[in-house]
């Protein structure tokens, strides 16, 4: 197994600021926009971005929540393992709101497909956008593309992109792992 | 840890501590789902489930059916009273005929103890026991423990008394097994005629004085007097039973502390429990019913994920 550093802590920090600014450009005061982190790994990025927007860019009120897509996945019973669920926490209405899905890595697009179905249980958003830190090019199974991307990488199927966060894994870093 | 150790849910006897923990954690997620405005998830859209009830049921049957539908499974219902069982068809024949229609899972209630185990040895489908005679009723015990966990934070170390007809009750047996597995202290209380011999060997204590038992416990699970299973008289009269083993508001208020009242239903109001107790805010009877759907969704989901 070989491991290559794709993004350092410093680079991640710069990218987070850029993504926050891009969100700000499109959503201004976030009055009609909600941020939804996708469980389990998207919530760290979602929390970072909402904190940045609040603290560094002076957005006063920003609704954010987390969405678990386990029960909406299309690979139930297709793997060896039982799919384990995480917590969904959405304490606001998404009806007629602009929703921004946030996830760490966009790979096949199947998780996003599941999230698009899952969010319907909470109402009918006026618009849905997608933000991912890493966009793995040429690996999509579905016609899904991000509106905001941190870094685009070319990774072959045997490779894995691993995103680590300080609050969960001890440091901010992104690796490309070849198994 | 992330999957059940069993292929069928035949009884609490076959589960371990981690299985119960996994079922509860999964049920937490489903409880959130069933409180959304759209209460349905598509997980089981390619699974067909047959609910086969050889005995009457309201809550369990509705609860299973609702849980299955909330998971998007296809559901067929079968009641023995309206079927060819009356014409003499055997259990295996009946079930095999149903399975020929490509059914993946069978939820069965049957008056004979061990019917689920028997079926699991002869047919190729996942079996969930929804009550087999006076033997086990695993989903009821799971939802009871889950309700205790929800109300008191944890089951471990809690004092639980099960009051009433322990002898004929599958709810009692499954509850004792589930509670002991999770580290609760269990007492049974009732007329000696309705307490099985050697029940102490299951690690429970016996108390015949209801007031003493209630003063000891955090939770009292009041069982129904099962008149339909009593071929002889086990106590002189319903009135005497109520006086000795029924809970009323006055008794509840005279206790040293506030206890939680549970009942698996259906309630014989005025026999084991009076209406003002059943409807009081110490009673979590209706929470038990709500939790029943979440628990059954969790059990079905976890077992279905093992169907290949």
Outline the fold blueprint.
The complex is a heterodimer of chains A (about 180) and B (about 300).
Chain A: E1 2-7, H1 9-27, E2 33-38, H2 42-55, E3 63-67, E4 98-106, H3 110-118, E5 127-137, E6 148-154, E7 159-164, H4 166-169, E8 173-178
Parallel strand pairs in A: 2-3, 2-4, 4-5, 5-6
Antiparallel strand pairs in A: 1-8, 7-8
Chain B: H1 17-33, E1 48-53, H2 59-70, E2 74-79, H3 91-99, E3 105-110, H4 115-122, E4 126-132, H5 138-152, E5 159-163, H6 170-181, E6 185-189, E7 205-207, H7 210-216, E8 219-222, H8 238-245, H9 249-253, E9 260-262, H10 275-278, H11 285-304
Parallel strand pairs in B: 1-2, 1-3, 3-4, 5-6, 5-8, 6-7, 8-9
> Averaging pLDDT over every residue of chain B, what do you get?
92
- Rg of chain B (C-alpha, Å): 19 Å
Q: What count of domains describes the coordinates of chain B?
A: 2
Tell me the number of structural domains of chain A.
1
Low-confidence stretches of chain A: none
What's the level 1 CATH class of the largest domain in chain B? Answer: Alpha Beta
The biggest beta sheet of chain A reads: 5 strands, parallel
State the CATH superfamily name of the largest domain in chain B: Aspartate/ornithine carbamoyltransferase
Which quaternary structure do these chains form?
heterodimer
Determine the structural class of chain A based on helices, strands and strand pairing: alpha/beta
Q: What is the largest interface, and how many residues per chain? A: A-B, 20 and 27 residues
Rg of chain A to the nearest angstrom?
16 Å
For the largest beta sheet of chain B, what order do the strands appear in spatially? 7-6-5-8-9
N-to-C order of helices and strands of chain B: HEHEHEHEHEHEEHEHHEHH
Number of strands of chain B: 9
CATH second-level architecture of chain A:
3-Layer(aba) Sandwich
Strand content of chain A: 25-35%
- Please indicate the percent range of residues of chain B in DSSP E strands (runs of 2 or more): 5-15%
- Per the CATH scheme, the topology name of the largest domain in chain B is Rossmann fold
